[in-house]
Amino acid sequence: MTSVVEEPRMDKISLILLGTIVAAVILGPNSIYAQQLVRVGYSGTGVAKNLHKTIERAGLWKKRGLDIRLIYFTSGATMAQAMVGGDLDIADSDVPAMLNAVSSGVLDGKLISVYVNRFPFAFVVRNEIKSAEDLKGKRLAISRFGSSSEVTTRMLLRHFKLDPDKDVRIIQATGTSRLPAMVAGQLDGTLLGTYDVPALLESGCCRVLVDMLEMPLDYARFGQVVPTNALKSRRDLFLKFVEGLIEGIYVFKTNTDLVLSVLKQEGIKGREYSYPRIAAAMRERPLPEVKGVQAVLDSVKTPKSKVTQAKDVMDPSLVEEIDKSGYIAKLYGK
Hints:
Elements (H helix, E strand, L loop, with lengths): L1 H26 L8 E8 L3 H11 L8 E8 L2 H9 L5 E3 L2 H9 L5 E8 L4 E6 L12 E4 L5 H12 L9 E4 L2 H10 L4 E5 L3 H6 L3 E6 L10 E6 H6 L1 H20 L1 H10 L5 H11 L8 H11 L16 H8 L2 H5 L3
Parallel strand pairs: 1-2, 1-3, 6-7, 6-8
Antiparallel strand pairs: 3-10, 4-10, 5-8, 5-9
């Protein structure tokens, strides 16, 4: 009796499973059954977020069977903590904060790409500040201690021949609170992403003291860090991700209408100012390179740093593999 009742039931289940498999094959990588979940963290609301929004709108993740879940962090330091806790697969945007965690020995991670090897920021100040010398005694904002905004601010102050610990007052302020605080005169200066500069200048309160994109400095600012053990066990997934990133950069640099639409949707003012500058800074071949990576490690180095050499924190093999296949050259018609 049992076999009589169970046999049709098993046939029914088998048919359902067969139908599912056939549907997945017919629908291909765009099928819900084929989507691979990837948790991607980012900090800030500019370069990384808008690139990811462009990639999503162009359908580049979906066609590779990737379900990218973007997770926003108020600073790179908190994003690094999340990866240490196993809550992220990929950390995007804040390379200095992530490599700070690697350098200190807190995180075992590898830098797999660098798509902006410059500082896409401007240091903005109140109008009454006319020179770097006028910064003495002033209140300067960063997102969080240990974040790349602190690292970059300190680096810039030293470039100005100022002592970050003695000559200025460094204050923590989240990204969304910095602009209104600058307008209200509660802060005297801060780093702003290129996308945010027009909105502040429009208020009439402030000016750009230095545009860091114009500084000829190699510095691995935007890219992806992944856990070392995951890079070994999930290499195929990361390879698809990096290929999608590379195509996304191409789309960002060439499909002006799509990108401006994304920026408008994100409420970015002065799009004609910011978009060409960011697009020009994005690298066709986002390979981690020793000079820019070493500059980051040197900027976060402390007496307690355990990892201090660029070669020990980077793995360029994914970008190299894609490049050697001719994929990048084909995208750009080279």
